């Protein structure tokens, strides 16, 4: 439960900052900090268990059959990440309070930040990979909102969209990978998947799984060639960059690689893919960072580079590599967050982030200078700071690996050194160009130190950098061992964290890198000229934009080709596709007749069939005479009702007959307003094409129906037939299914019916006219009038009879409702709208509403007896004439059905009846 | 005896339906078609009653009753349409 | 009997498809009506044919036809009516707004 709370606290806290911002900006920050701090306290409470090697688990089944469970677990690795997310999150909240200006909506900022935090926590704590994917997508969406926070800026919007497109696409790959993993392992539980590494790597699906997982991770962690979204995400406010691009968003990809390490690693494919991409990203990012003039741009490329380094370490398939990777995750989070915040401070106090305009700031902000210098030194891998330790471990690992590989293995340490060299060079540039040198005099503002509490978060992080850097084994080795144990699924072999390992190859590499960096920095003008000569402007963003534009243009063309605005053409395409697909299925799957014995066909049935066929053909061929087509359609309906009777479906026959008459009335009402003739306008070619399509479709359906009817049936209906009387209290199984077994479906269907009626009403109410008509013989023939009024009570009696008997004999709410509707419509026709609505009602909404409420409350009443929604109960009653019937709660439900049907049908028909034919010649 | 009677009944009803259908489709006037449809409904009642007798089951009687009523209402609607165009005024 | 029902469904479907491909709203709606007849019959027939075996439970009767498709089709018939009404309203509205009952809204 506590585990769930950790995730839920930030998500639930979303509502607080926007509300409390009215009480002031500080109140809003407190509102964001409180749930974060609470979650951190909860996490700290669980930490001892995890440090002792335990795993905290919490799980709630949701759809166990599909493997969907709300499941969380906390191991060492999860603890590390959750701690980073919450701890740095807290610092960012403090920082942002001072960073955001008066004009920025602070409530919205904190709400999005909390949403993002909750989603990140969900990723690192999920014990179900489908759940993990859900949270993964949530981080994509919430980071989209955060990056686009300054929504009036075009670059923010474009950067946000690009981040969403790239990481969202990766999320889809991850979803596919999760489903494949679940398929291979037989469980979506993350811990089960981690334990099944051998099964997964031996599976033929291993390569697709690996590829999809890596696509998800690489897009999120901005690995080459998906790195281009990250620099553009720098359009976000700096607190967002500091949070997303140091400890959270981009680390999610690395987290995934580490989390699935036991399941996927250990193979040659893993080694090649992960190591090569990691190495390429590291070198590329570091090189790119060297030539960025924007402080945040420099940090963005540096982030790409360090993420590549971490990825590479996990690709090595060694325990020491994993430990180094986890260690660098921690170190990078601390120094990169403080660097981003320092960049934010500089931007905030000077008004620019352009390195070319900055210089000599040491005179104005000495404290900030020290903080930034330490963080940059850590990033460069200077001894005494934490970055040095993990870089040494990295160099050690690549040297070991190159010895194992032989051949071109030596490339690995060479490129590692180059990466380290570039990294140190841009760190030097970050510090020297900004704080030293001469003032350029181009600053928009007069610089000074930031507000006290804006610096506190940076100071805390720098303290960690130094403490870890100086006394590593004391400060961090337990945390590191626990976290690495979580990745490896076992306690790692003892390792030593020390500043001094003696004179060895890694030390030489470090010295080379640092010395080379200084040399490179002093030759930076030459380097820049060389860079501009060698690499003309080619950006990932340009590629992305042109791919995007191409995709949009292609989909426009496809849409225009598929849908040129002609309904007729669309219908042909849809039906044609259906016919072709069904034909393909029929040919490959087989439509042969089954073994079931045929039912004999008596002569009257053949005669009815023949009449039906003739009437249908006449409808199709003579549809230009609309009245004839309508009458002939009525014949087809009548004959299909007769068919229902013959094949033992009396309820359907009754329904069909009632619907038949209301449909006829409806179509006549419409025909009154529409032209009476259809012009002959189709070309013979089109008629032939349609005819061929129609015959193909009809033939296919006939073959399918025949194949279905002649095959043996194993139906679930046995259950309904057996339990109808003892369980539902009714002999008419069809009705019992409707109001009891499948009552919820019926409830949905009458809701649809009600909605359709309301739509019909809403669409044509403007043209509806009720005129007080002269009650003349010509308008309302006397005979019809009297006949209809005599029929009204008769129909009412039949309605009650059919309704009450419905549970045991053919009938029920639907049929009774239709009969009652017909009775009312008859009054409309015989006496006119005005007369009828004066005496009955013109307002059918209460009836529809009452019907739905009756049905709904009948279902809810079950809850009073502590049984599920719509559970029915009954007892039998014997009335004279009507016979034995039951009073079941289902009858109340059926009453709801009845009311809804009456209200809906009469509302629709009366609404059509109020339409006036158009004035001719319009 | 009953069987023979039923056969004769079936034959007569079917013949009536066939002729009605002819009138309904051939017309020539709309009134012809409406009357034919009305009669067709009545034929259908007869057909259902015959089937019920054959099956010895009263369960279909309601259908016959309903056809009688619905056929009447349908005929009203068609007649009203032919007479005035507007059904409800 | 199976052959009669299957071919009947086929003929009604064919006519329905042909009419839904017409250019004017009224025949299209008639086509949809025919198609729903065919679909309803088809669905009921997937419960297989049984003569004189309605799903009304009696003492001593053993054979019943499959009630489930019937229950589904019963609501389908009513919903089909609602759909017809809705499409008709659209046809009416289109005719009023565009002055034509062509399905594409233009002659």
Automatic annotation (TrEMBL), chain B:
This is Na(+)/H(+) antiporter subunit F. Pfam families: MrpF_PhaF. One of its GO terms (molecular function) is sodium:proton antiporter activity. It is found in: Cell membrane. The keyword Membrane applies. It is a multi-pass membrane protein. The chain crosses the membrane at residues 6-22, 34-53, 59-79. Coiled coil: none annotated. InterPro entries: MrpF/PhaF-like.
Automatic annotation (TrEMBL), chain C:
Keywords: Cell membrane, Membrane, Transmembrane, Transmembrane helix. Coiled coil: none annotated. InterPro entries: CPA3_antiporter_subunitC, NUOK/Mnh_C1-like. The chain crosses the membrane at residues 6-21, 28-51, 71-92. GO terms for cellular component: plasma membrane. Its main location: membrane. It is a multi-pass membrane protein. It is found in: Cell membrane. The keyword Membrane applies. This is Na(+)/H(+) antiporter subunit C1. It comes from wastewater metagenome.
């Amino acid at each position: 439960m506590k585990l769930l709370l950790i995730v839920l606290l930030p998500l639930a806290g979303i509502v607080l900052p926007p509300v409390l911002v009215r009480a002031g900006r500080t109140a809003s920050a407190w509102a964001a900090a409180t749930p974060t701090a609470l979650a951190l306290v909860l996490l700290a409470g669980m930490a001892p268990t995890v440090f002792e090697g335990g795993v905290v688990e919490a799980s709630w089944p949701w759809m166990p059959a599909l493997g969907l469970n709300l499941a969380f677990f906390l191991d060492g690795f999860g603890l590390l990440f959750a701690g980073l997310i919450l701890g740095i999150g807290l610092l960012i909240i403090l920082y942002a309070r001072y960073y955001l200006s008066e004009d920025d909506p602070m409530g919205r900022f904190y709400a999005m930040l909390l949403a993002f935090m909750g989603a990140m926590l969900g990723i690192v704590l999920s014990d179900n990979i489908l759940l993990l994917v859900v949270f993964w997508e949530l981080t994509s969406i919430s980071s989209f909102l955060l990056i686009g926070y300054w929504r009036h800026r075009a670059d923010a919007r474009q950067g946000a969209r690009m981040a969403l497109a790239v990481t969202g696409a990766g999320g889809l790959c991850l979803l596919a990978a999760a489903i494949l993993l679940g398929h291979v392992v037989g469980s979506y539980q993350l811990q089960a998947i981690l334990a099944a590494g051998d099964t997964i790597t031996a599976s033929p699906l291993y390569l697709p799984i690996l590829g999809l997982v890596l696509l998800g991770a690489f897009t999120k962690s901005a690995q080459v060639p998906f790195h281009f979204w990250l620099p553009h995400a720098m359009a976000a406010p700096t607190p967002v960059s500091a949070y997303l691009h140091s400890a959270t968003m981009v680390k999610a990809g690395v987290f995934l690689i580490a989390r699935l390490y036991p399941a996927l690693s250990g193979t040659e494919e893993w080694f090649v893919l992960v190591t090569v991409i990691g190495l390429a990203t590291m070198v590329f990012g570091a090189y790119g960072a060297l030539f960025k003039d924007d402080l945040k741009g420099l940090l963005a490329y540096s982030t790409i580079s360090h993420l590549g380094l971490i990825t590479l370490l996990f690709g090595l398939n060694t325990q020491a590599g994993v430990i180094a990777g986890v260690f660098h995750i921690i170190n990078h989070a601390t120094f990169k967050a403080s660097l981003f915040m320092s960049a934010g401070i500089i931007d905030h106090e000077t008004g620019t982030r352009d390195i070319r305009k900055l210089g000599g700031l040491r005179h104005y902000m000495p404290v900030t200078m020290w903080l930034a210098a330490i963080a940059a030194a850590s990033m460069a891998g200077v001894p005494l700071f934490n970055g040095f330790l993990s870089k040494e471990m990295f160099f050690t690992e690549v040297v070991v690996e190159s010895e194992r590989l032989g051949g071109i293995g030596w490339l690995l340490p060479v490129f590692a050194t180059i990466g380290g060299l570039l990294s140190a060079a841009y760190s030097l540039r970050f510090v020297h160009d900004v704080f030293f040198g001469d003032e350029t005099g181009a600053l928009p503002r007069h610089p000074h130190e930031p507000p006290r509490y804006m610096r506190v978060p940076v100071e805390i992080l720098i303290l960690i950098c130094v403490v870890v850097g100086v006394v590593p084994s004391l400060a961090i080795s337990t945390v590191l061992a626990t976290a690495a144990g979580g990745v490896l699924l076992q306690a790692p072999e003892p390792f030593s964290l020390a500043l001094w390992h003696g004179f060895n190859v890694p030390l030489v590499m470090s010295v080379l890198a640092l010395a080379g960096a200084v040399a490179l920095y002093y030759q930076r003008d030459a380097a820049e000229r060389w860079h501009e000569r060698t690499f003309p402007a080619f950006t990932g963003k340009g590629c992305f934009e042109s791919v995007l534009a191409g995709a949009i243009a292609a989909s426009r063309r496809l849409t225009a080709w598929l849908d040129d605005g002609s309904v007729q053409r669309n219908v042909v395409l849809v039906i044609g596709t259906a016919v072709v697909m069904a034909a393909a299925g029929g040919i490959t799957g087989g439509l042969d007749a089954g073994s079931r014995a045929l039912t004999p066909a008596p002569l009257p049935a053949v005669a009815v069939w023949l009449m039906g066929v003739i009437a249908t053909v006449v409808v199709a061929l003579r549809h230009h005479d609309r009245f004839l087509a309508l009458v002939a359609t009525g014949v087809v309906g009548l004959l299909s009702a007769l068919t229902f009777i013959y094949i033992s479906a009396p309820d359907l026959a009754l329904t069909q007959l009632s619907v038949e008459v209301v449909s006829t009335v409806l179509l006549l009402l419409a025909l009154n307003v529409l032209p009476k003739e259809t012009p002959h306008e189709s070309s013979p070619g089109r008629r032939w094409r349609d005819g061929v399509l129609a015959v193909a479709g009809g033939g296919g359906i006939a073959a399918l129906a025949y194949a279905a009817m002649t095959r043996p049936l194993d139906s679930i209906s046995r259950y309904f037939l057996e339990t109808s009387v003892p369980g539902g209290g009714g002999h008419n199984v069809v009705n019992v299914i409707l109001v009891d077994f499948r009552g919820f479906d019926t409830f949905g269907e009458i809701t649809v019916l009600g909605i359709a009626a309301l739509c019909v009403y809403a669409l044509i109410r403007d043209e509806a006219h009720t005129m007080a008509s002269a009650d003349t013989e010509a308008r309302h023939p006397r005979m019809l009038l009297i006949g209809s009024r005599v029929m009204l009570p008769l129909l009412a009696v039949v309605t009650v009879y059919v309704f009450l008997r419905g549970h045991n004999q053919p009938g029920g709410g639907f049929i009774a409702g239709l009969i009652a509707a017909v009775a009312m419509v008859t009054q409309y026709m015989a006496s006119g709208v005005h007369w009828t609505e004066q005496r009955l009602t013109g307002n059918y909404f209460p009836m529809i509403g009452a019907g739905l409420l009756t049905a709904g409350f009948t279902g809810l009443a079950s809850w009073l007896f502590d049984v599920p929604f719509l559970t029915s109960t009954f007892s039998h009653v014997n009335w004279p004439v009507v016979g034995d019937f039951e009073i079941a709660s289902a009858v109340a439900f059926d009453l709801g059905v009845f009311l809804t049907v009456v209200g809906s049908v009469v509302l629709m028909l009366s609404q059509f009846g109020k339409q006036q034919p158009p004035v001719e010649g319009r | 005896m009953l069987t023979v009677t039923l056969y004769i009944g079936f034959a007569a009803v079917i013949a009536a339906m066939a002729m009605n259908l002819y009138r309904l489709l051939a017309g020539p006037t709309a009134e012809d078609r409406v009357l034919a449809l009305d009669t067709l409904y009545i034929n259908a009642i007869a057909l259902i009653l015959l089937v019920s007798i054959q099956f010895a089951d009263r369960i279909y009687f309601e259908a016959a009753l309903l056809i009688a009523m619905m056929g009447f209402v349908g005929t009203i609607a068609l007649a009203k349409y032919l007479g005035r165009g507007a059904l409800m005024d | 009997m199976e052959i009669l029902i299957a071919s009947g469904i086929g003929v009604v479907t064919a006519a329905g498809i042909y009419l839904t491909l017409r250019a004017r709203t009224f025949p299209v709606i008639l086509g949809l009506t025919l198609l729903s007849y065919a679909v309803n019959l088809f669905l009921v027939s997937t419960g297989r044919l049984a003569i004189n075996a309605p799903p009304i439970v009696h003492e001593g009767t053993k054979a019943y036809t499959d009630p489930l498709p019937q229950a589904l089709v019963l609501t389908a018939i009513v919903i089909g009516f609602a759909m017809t009404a809705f499409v008709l309203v659209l046809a009416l509205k289109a005719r009023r707004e565009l002055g034509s009952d062509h399905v594409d809204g233009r002659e």
